[in-house]
Amino acid sequence: MKKLFVLISFWAMMVSVDAQLVQFGVNGDIAFDRESSDNWDGDSAPKPDNGWSAGFKLKVSFPLGLGFDLGLKYAEQDFCYVWGMYESQGDGSDLSVSSGSVKDKVKMISVPINLRYDVKLPAIRRVVIPFAFTGPEFCYAVDGLSWKDIESGELNRDDFKKEDKTWNYNFGFGVIIARHVELSYIYSIRMTESLDWADKHVGKEISSLYESRRNKIGVTIYF
């Protein structure tokens, strides 16, 4: 009986500890203040849908505050690329031979992985916990850029290389309220592009209409 009591007590203690160290929840974020780059005339540039994502999140915290979190999310984001082909003239100027653009909404599965530090101050840790985080976000396009615009004119899909696997780098900060509601600010930097030339050489340019940096607000509800 004594051994059984010790075993039950140990199991109860481990469950209590695990409840504090490991948390699982639903997560979502929405981007805002996304700017067009200088690659497009600001008056005629299409306005982007800022993008959003939603899914699940697992957070693991260690006693000293260090830990990590990882997510599995469905995401939608606007992409727009402009390109041009040029020939050098005798006077040193460039003559445009062909130009165009493609704009589409890309649907992705994203997996963010963050190293984080939770500031667990003894006096307020049950009420609010500030934290900071940083890490990569890997994305796979399940419905990527279409080719309907690219196939018109002198160019076709063989002139371009479409990349379905891309990644971003994120960092930010936030607070956990009452151990179950997490609010965060995310600064995301796109590290790879979804479209590029298949054969790169002088006289070809391709660039994204939208800046690579995005600001996002995220919310997580832990069970």
Question: Can you tag this structure with a few keywords?
Answer:
single chain, 223 residues, mainly beta, two-stranded antiparallel ribbon
Provide an overview of this structure.
The structure is a single chain. This protein is mostly beta strands and 223 residues long. Helices cover 9% and strands 58% of the residues. The protein is built from 1 helix and 11 strands; from the N terminus they run αβββββββββββ. The protein has one helix at residues 2-21, and strands at 22-32, 52-61, 66-88, 94-118, 128-143, 160-162, 165-177, 181-190, 195-197, 204-208, 213-222. The strands form 2 sheets. An 8-stranded antiparallel beta barrel has the order 1-2-3-4-5-7-8-11. A hairpin with a 5-residue loop joins β3 (66-88) and β4. The longest helix has 20 residues, at 2-21. The protein is elongated, with a radius of gyration of 24 Å. Mean pLDDT is 81; it is low at 10-19.
In terms of DSSP E residues, the strand content is over 45%
> Biggest sheet, open or closed, and with what strands and sense?
8 strands, antiparallel, barrel
> Can you tell me the overall shape?
elongated
What's the tally of helices? 1
**Gyration radius, in Å:** 24 Å
